[in-house]
Amino acid sequence: MGWFWADSAPVAPHPMPRGNAEPPPSCPMHRKSPSPSSRLPESASTPQGACPYVPPDTPSPASSSTPVPPKKGLLSRLNPLNNMPFDLSNKRAEHQIQELPLSRERSTIPKGDGSLWEYPSPQQMYNAMLRKGYTDTPTDAIESMVAVHNFLNEGAWAEIMGWERRFSRGLAEGYKVCARGEENANQVMGIEDPFDTTTWNERDIPPPKLLRFTGRPTEPTPKSQILQWLGWVFPAKFATAPPFDRHDWFVQRCSEKGCEEVRYVIDYYEGDPEPTGEPVFYLDVRPAVDGPRGAAERMVRWGTDVWWRASGGVVREVRKAEAARKKQEEEAVAKSRQYN
After folding, report:
1. Domain boundaries in the chain?
2. By the 8 A CB rule, do 129 and 105 touch?
């Protein structure tokens, strides 16, 4: 999850003057621009009360010699890759009573240039929360918050890797992987650990990369809103707390035809804590429906898993395995009789 800042609205440096705003009668704004021969020479002084207006085709000496200072707005201070300031403060905050680590942990998530994203240090996290207004955050809880933050981002990337392993080569190949349900998909892809974020078995295409991301906690996704509505209608089955955060991750997907950008939507849910008090989190990661392909990928993965379980795919697999085992036993018995 990222941390984002916003400055207060700028105040105008000069208030608008009140009273009669009409230009003086001698101001050339009242009449057509005079001919070049009728204008005053540059060395002539401006009479008192005259309009300071200079026609557009007469450049002002001040404007030609003094460069316009560059604008220093909020957007110019934000990194477009993650909407965070370029200068992440890693200095001790005022009134801070406990030292916090300054080192940053490197993730397993590759950037567009091939390097790895780095997570904020505990000190940077604390400064970010102070800047967002969370002044009551206990200092001794920051390191745990950073650990949870990093763990959730690694989990989100593992989920994205699962989608990319299925559909990087297209819908047809993705259907072949998903046809036997979620429980057999990793076996089809040759993945032992579904949370492995570093293994990529496709040798002829590069692995996915996280180009940029943005947090949108105040903009709920349509799916989360539908789930909240279902929880209100059927509380026994769908009741759940709304997600506490939402991110959009923009991923580079490569295939034999080249590379393209795919947007993923992530909803972060908090579940009931473990009996030991440990927090539980759920991530809902899926491609955004920015076009027919994103919708098709979601339908293929969800529909094949539902059909596999509803049609008794597990039972069919068990029966097929038993039939193969019996056939091997019968062949072994037949061979033994031949030798006797």
Report:
1. 88-313
2. no
